[in-house]
Write a structure and sequence with these properties.
Layout: H1 6-23, H2 28-47, H3 54-57, H4 66-79, H5 86-101
């Protein structure tokens, strides 16, 4: 009978912990919190109307699909160095989709 080394056990446990977090259902409350803390002020400044939500509802918006929304959140995270984890990006995307876009999954 072979035993898994402690190092192997830790590696397997860590892998499944990360996998579970990535594939967990998005947390809409966390997505809203991140949007308010890291996105809203920049978007308010960008629109010029002190309302960060206007960027999501404007007629010439760049986001036209759920895939594009996820890509835009990821791009903002990378370009602005927001230091969000993949599950944070999923939370923000899910919140924005539910609140503003309403794309079908």
């Amino acid at each position: 009978m072979k035993f898994i080394s402690l190092r192997g056990f830790v590696a397997i446990t860590a892998f499944w912990s990360v996998a579970a977090a990535v594939y967990a259902a998005p947390d809409l409350n966390q997505g809203k919190k991140i949007d308010q803390e890291k996105c809203y002020a920049c978007h308010a400044k960008k629109t010029g109307f002190s309302n960060g939500d206007m960027i999501y509802t404007r007629s010439d918006r760049k986001v036209t699909s759920l895939a594009r929304l996820k890509a835009m959140v990821a791009m903002c995270n990378t370009e602005l160095r927001l230091d969000l984890f993949p599950e944070d990006e999923a939370d923000v995307s899910a919140y924005l989709n539910k609140q503003f876009y309403k794309f079908k999954p």
